[in-house]
Amino acid sequence: MQISIGLPATFNPDAYDMIVVGAGYAGSVCARRVAEGAGFRVAVLERREHIAGNAYDYVNDEGILVHKYGPHIYHTYSERVHEFLSRFTKWTDYQHKVLANIHGTLMPVPFNHTSLRLAFGEDRGEELYRKLVDTFGEDKKVPIMELRQKNDPDLQEVADYVYENVFLYYTMKQWGQTPDQIDPSVTGRVPVFIGDDDRYFPQAPYQGMPEDGYTVLFEHMLDHDLIDVFVGVDARDIFTLDENNVSVCGKVYGGEIVYTGPLDELFNLDLGALPYRTLDMQFETLEQDQFQPVGTVNYTTSEDFTRITEFKNMTGQVVPGKTTIMKEFSHAYEPGSGQTPYYAIIDPKNRALYERYLERVQNLTNFHPVGRLAEYRYYDMDAVTDSALELSDEIISCHA
């Protein structure tokens, strides 16, 4: 595929049936799906200098494939999502495992049968595990906040330990809030798992890593005769919105627009900025084969950073004598700073602000916000793919 840097002077929006803003999962899935399904000619505009959004990976100077914007671990329960993405890559058999460093002891998270024995000792850990099984059943996920509500001293003992040693400090570092201040959709993402499976996604039927990396997956997805990709293009420089129309390059645009960026930035934050958390990534290449036993270790009771990722443990790369690790430091996102808005801070106040921005585009029948930023949601990449496939279905059906 050919990627153009910037827009040529001859760029004509009317030559395209659809303009997609953003070359991450949401935008790229829509571009490919609608090009194939409706025969649309599509222009993809990407603000960054590369495709693949936050999933972008590259080979560093030491020859190690790294994820520039933090680790992306593929997993999904959706057969449709898996079938679609599998058209553009083969998958490794990688099964993601995470350990928590709790006062120097590494324990599996989600907290499980093994974790209980490590935390409470063999006998007491087994006793508590049996109580969990009797209460909830085996191979069940129980959100920590739900467990804390049970009026049982044994369950309270487990809940208090996990809350204080796995969630509290880690959550405050990650979100700048305590768990009880955070939307349940977020705290429920890392439950207690009642079972022996120590994978991070124990029940997801489709897991792995793209065999040649995420960037190559996106190159294949966007490689279509009807798709043109332009990077280094900020849509805000060529878009103008009013109550009834979207103008592109000064002319009312009659085609479809798929928008995957932040809605508040499209309107210059005139109602106020939507809050996000961002991350500073600190990469380090070490002169050793392996630094830690799994891809990710969370630091839940110590350190200023939230976790360390070791990429070779995830990709399966063999690079003797060297390994690259990455530490993540979370803090508040500042609009206009060049930082990346990673995680929407979802609460009633922020959601209400988002809805006010959304109201401004709801009368634009050809304008479709989709994805983590445009929908102000805490999405995994498979959920973003699913949302983009659904939107593509709607656009295709309207033009059938």
TrEMBL record:
Any single GO CC term annotated in Swiss-Prot or TrEMBL for this entry: cytosol
One Pfam family cited in the UniProt record for this chain: NAD_binding_8
Named cofactor requirement(s): FAD
One of the record's GO molecular function terms: UDP-galactopyranose mutase activity
Keyword annotations of the record: FAD, Flavoprotein, Isomerase
Domain UDP-galactopyranose mutase C-terminal, chain residue ranges per copy: 166-378
Gene3D superfamilies: NAD(P)-binding Rossmann-like Domain (3.40.50.720)
Claim: Flavoprotein is one of the keywords in the record: yes
Enzyme Commission code(s) on record: 5.4.99.9
Family of the protein in this entry: Belongs to the UDP-galactopyranose/dTDP-fucopyranose mutase family.
Stored NCBIfam families: UDP-GALP_mutase
Protein name according to UniProt: UDP-galactopyranose mutase
Organism in which the protein naturally occurs: Enorma shizhengliae
Upper classification of the organism: Bacteria, Bacillati, Actinomycetota, Coriobacteriia, Coriobacteriales
